[in-house]
Amino acid sequence: MSLEVPPLRARAPVPGEIVTLAELEPRHILATLGRLEGNKLATAKEPGIGVNTLRRKLRRYEAPPAK
Length: 67
Prior knowledge:
It is a single chain. By secondary structure, this protein is mainly α. It has a domain at 21-62: Arc Repressor Mutant, subunit A, CATH 1.10.10. The protein has helices at 21-35, 40-45, 51-62. The longest helix has 15 residues, at 21-35.
């Protein structure tokens, strides 16, 4: 079973921008996923989370923001 997915893109922070942890987490995870060429297992290992947690976070990042 392969855990490979196409790389995703994360927006780079703007110099001087104040970034919350809630904004930083998806940026970091998406950047790591892209750097590791979509390998979810390796991406999950970097911050020490499980693959299922990573998948749940990725689904949340793709969901439209709540109104």
